[in-house]
Design a protein that fits this description.
Elements (H helix, E strand, L loop, with lengths): L2 H12 L3 E10 L9 E5 L2 E4 L4 H15 L9 E6 L11 E9 L4 E6 L3 H10 L4 E7 L13 E5 L15 E4 L4 H12 L8 E3 L3 H13 L4 H5 L1 E2 L12 H14 L7
Helix pairs in contact: 3-7
């Protein structure tokens, strides 16, 4: 009974597109009752709305809504007569509701689960974005995470940059300057694919990173794309929450007008 609930929650946390299919109405003899649900993914499903040709038709409709390039869809209701047209002998009729559950267009990767990282993720969890939160220290993550936050425990956090979706914003605030440098280099190698790339630190840290990036052959335009220090100007407090607010505001400023 609860399999579809778990599947939908896991999909939301992982940013995995899905369509929730519900038997909205069941008239006469039908394979499933009103309220039966099925979660459809591009490559799988959980639950059932009755099997047979009805379910095949439902899968085709749901996956059309998930197809690459498909326009964002509103909930859709379709009516089916379970007679000869569908090759089912039930003889009844069913109405199915299709509800696309799509990941947020705004994706943010936060590297570092220290005090500022925790404060920033708390703020982002209340905004319309999906967060990938990366750290090598499993014990630093809270036991419970918000629905759109996915924790990634990695011994090589910089390697996780390659898996980020195109357009993702990257905020680097780990416990190590050397690790910050590795992650920044990995992000700048994807220049043009990722969005905002920022690292917590001072103007002195920016100067040191610039020297190291130049020594490693990064072109000036890629180095210029790095945001350091991070956060909107005018916020001078050093409290983790104050820094997080300044960074979240800067991320919001850089979103397209219709997504703020």
């Amino acid at each position: 009974m609860s399999g579809w609930i778990t599947a939908l929650a896991e999909a939301a946390a992982a940013g995995r597109p899905a369509v929730l299919v519900t038997v909205l109405r069941a008239d006469g003899s039908t394979p499933r009752e009103a309220g039966a649900k099925m979660v459809v993914f591009e490559d799988g499903l959980e639950g059932s709305v009755g099997g047979g040709h009805l379910e095949l038709e439902a899968l085709a409709t749901a996956r059309a809504l998930l197809a690459p390039g498909a326009a964002p869809a509103a909930p859709l209701v379709k009516e089916y007569k379970l007679g000869p047209a569908l090759g089912q002998c039930c003889g009844g009729a069913a109405a199915l509701l299709f509800e696309p559950v799509l990941p947020a267009r705004w994706q943010v990767a936060v590297f570092g689960a220290g005090h500022v990282g925790k404060a920033l993720v708390r703020l982002l969890a209340d905004l319309p974005c999906s967060v990938t939160w990366v750290d090598g220290r499993e014990g630093e993550f809270p036991r419970e995470l918000p629905a759109r936050v996915r924790a990634v425990v990695s011994e090589a956090p910089a390697d996780e940059v390659a898996a980020l979706p195109a357009g993702a914003d990257v905020v680097v605030m780990t416990h190590s300057h050397a690790l910050d440098q590795e992650i920044v280099e990995a992000a700048l190698r994807r220049a043009g694919e990722l969005g905002y790339v920022g690292v917590i630190g001072s103007a002195t840290k920016r100067a040191r990173f610039t020297q190291r990036l130049e020594a490693r052959g990064f072109p000036p335009e890629r180095i210029a794309a790095l945001v350091c220090p991070v956060g909107v100007e005018g916020v001078r407090g050093k409290h983790p929450a104050a820094i997080a607010i300044a960074v979240a505001a800067q991320l919001l400023q850089r979103r397209p007008e219709g997504e703020r």
